[in-house]
Amino acid sequence: RLDPEVLDAMMPLLTEHFGNPGSSHSGGRPVAKAVHAARRAVADRFGLEPSEIVFLASATEADNLALRGVITACEGPRHLITTAVEHPAVLDVARALESEGLCSLTVLGVDRDGQLSLDALRKAIRPGDTKLVSIMGANNETGVLFPIPEIASIVHDAGALLHVDAVQLIGKVPPEWTRWPVDLFSLSAHKFHGPKGSGLMTAPKHVKLNPMVVGGGQERGLRSGTENPAGIVGISKALELALDHSAEALPPMAARRDRLAEGLRAQVEGLVVTGAGAARNANTLHVTIAGVEAEPILVNLDREGIAVSAGSACSSGALKASHVLEAMGLPKDRIHGVLRLSLSRETTDADIDRVLEVLPPIVQRVRNLG
Ligand code: PLP
């Protein structure tokens, strides 16, 4: 949820300072100042100049801009590499670019734990032709982490650029990731206690990018349209809090996640933690339960006031098999009994106790009915 400190930072931009930051009159000046301060604060965290931060409306927009912006701005052969477990905001753009004839595409598979083979990445790179590699920091369904610093050195040695969708890294791994040698990062504020409708991309000057939205030339010409000052100040404040809180918030979050996993494993027959053999972020617990469907479990949990999804929030409405689990080669009897339990820095021990009390009998009831 929105952190009250983030809301406090946003309020003046929604009330007394309502001017357009692009206006030179006195109504616009304080707004422009607030937007600039937010841009500088974000840039400092990434070791960039303020002009190297592009504020957008979502991570989806950032992912689209990163892939389409780089690929269409490249000269010569254009080869793009990504992975089979990316969010659709990356995978669908990659496939669209390929089908529009704008690039050739390699989609790397993962192993049973959701991990990537760095050798496979090395082999897939075509030096000179591979212009961009887009690999997420942490998977949004399983929390599995990819070794981005190692990936960055492989990609850069081959002269290509690296884009990292960092939506599931921020606030969920230690804050040093902002200094990894990555060319383009994507973020979405609502994933770290900021407002919905506010995202950003890091866009260092050495990366040639074509804009997708043209017009008034805002955001260094990379994203025209009047800025969203409250959203910009909100994402900046949320970023500050997420990075500053990580050191003290992550160890208890990971411990609660592990206690939840152990408690569920002990009580629910046939429950397996997905990606258990891989490094994972601190907040995501993805499990499969043999021989049950997720939907009745989700409905019963919801009645108890516990909000859980079956994979990603966007595909859980349809409850279709997840492309991530398919890529991991999960057996068919497990691909439908999936639950993703997410923690935040606000999750308490009492929340964990309650899930441990409520979830096992629900699974039992659903099994008995089935
Ligand atoms: N990338 C990842 C890894 C995500 O988890 C999400 C959303 O869940 C997105 C991109 C898209 O974010 P948004 O819906 O804010 O555009």
Description:
It contains 11 helices and 10 strands. Helix 3 (59-73) runs parallel beside helix 4. It has helices spanning 4-14, 29-46, 59-73, 88-99, 118-124, 148-157, 229-267, 294-303, 313-316, 323-327, 349-369, and strands at residues 53-56, 79-83, 104-108, 130-134, 161-165, 184-188, 199-202, 271-273, 284-289, 338-342. The protein binds pyridoxal-5'-phosphate (PLP). Pyridoxal-5'-phosphate binds next to helix 3. Pyridoxal-5'-phosphate (PLP) binds at residues 58-60, 63, 87, 89, 136, 140, 165, 167-168, 188, 199.
A few lines on this structure:
By secondary structure, the protein is of the alpha/beta class. It has helices at residues 4-14, 29-46, 59-73, 88-99, 118-124, 148-157, 229-267, 294-303, 313-316, 323-327, 349-369, and strands at 53-56, 79-83, 104-108, 130-134, 161-165, 184-188, 199-202, 271-273, 284-289, 338-342.
Total DSSP E strands: 10
What Rg, in angstroms, do the CA atoms define? 21 Å
Q: Ligands in the structure?
A: pyridoxal-5'-phosphate
Number of helices: 11
How widely separated are the two ends?
A: 36 Å
**Structural class label:** alpha/beta
- Apparent shape: globular
Largest sheet: 7 strands, mixed
Q: Give the helices and strands as they follow along the chain.
A: HHEHEHEHEHEEEHEEHHHEH
Question: How much is the average pLDDT?
Answer: 95
What strand order characterises the main sheet?
1-7-6-5-4-2-3
Counting copies of identical and different chains, the oligomeric state is single chain
Query: Roughly what percent helix?
Result: 40-55%
DSSP strand content:
5-15%
- Stretches where pLDDT is under 50 for at least 5 consecutive residues are 313-317
